[in-house]
Automatic annotation (TrEMBL):
InterPro entries according to UniProt: EamA_dom, EmrE-like
Principal location class: membrane
UniProt keyword Transmembrane helix, yes or no: yes
Subcellular location: Membrane
TM region positions: 12-32, 44-63, 75-94, 100-120, 129-147, 153-171, 183-205, 211-228, 240-259, 265-282
Membrane-related topology note: Multi-pass membrane protein
Name of the protein: Drug/metabolite transporter (DMT)-like permease
Keyword Transmembrane found: yes
UniProt source species: Agrilutibacter niabensis
UniProt entry keywords in alphabetical sequence: Membrane, Transmembrane, Transmembrane helix
Pfam families given in the database record: EamA (PF00892)
Amino acid sequence: MTATATPQHRFLRAAGLMLVSTLFFGLMAITIRFASRTLSTYEIAFFRNAFGLLALLPVLLHGGASLRTRQLPRYLLRSTIGIGSMLCAFWAIGHLPLSQAIALSYSTPLFVTIAAVIWLGETVRKRRWAAVIIGFIGVLVIVRPGTSGFSHGSLIAVLAAVLSAIVAIQIKQLSRVDPADTIVFYTYVFWVPLSLIPAVFAWTWPHGIEWAWLALIGVFGTGGQLLWTRALRLGDVSALTPISFMQLPVVAFAGYLFFDEGIDHWTILGAAIIFCANAYIAHREAKLSRQHATTAPVEAAKPAE
């Protein structure tokens, strides 16, 4: 009885963590939009990282995370590309309809699949390539190039997804040597000074409620990252990925309620197509991972030839 209940309990806990993480990321997007009314994207990114690091330190110190690493140059490269992705994503959230900016961010796993082939040499077979192509059709439905609904700003959101995919590959490489908390710590240590450089050229001191928005962006962003990481440790990515799409209705409703944004049916359709493609890719990756875990002990037990 206990043996069968334990996996179910682990999944429910993972699903709960993923749901709260998704809510945190949605709230971060909403607060970014509020802050973008009066502050530059560069300054918002800097304070997101500064307040995020402050929120992160007690968690890492309490957990006794190891800070030893031999990969500092890789962390610098990962953080530099990550800042580019962050600036593009924050600009999109601040200037595009919220639902469109978030829907396009869901294209990241499509680019991760391509990047994994290029940089990690992973094998992707026909069915996953078909899912990637279908996912890009969803992106085209949202962006609608060549129509009156096309906005050049949507390309910045797509660029954010591309850079985020490259960062995901770099995290995979870093995680082969360093634990997750070490990766998160050094990412923030580099993010703060790197994001300060462009912020200096657009600096205006925040006032009043702006400080609250900036602090909340840092707390929601860091909290979302930590919960997301822990959810994936407990649960199967194929089962948890659909939960992350709950962010879209949250931000779409917030856009309607606070920013007088209509809910574009093209964005909903494109997001649904991307969702289906991502769900299949996550399912295939989880299945292949389980197969590898099953066959690895058998291969290891074979005598050397």
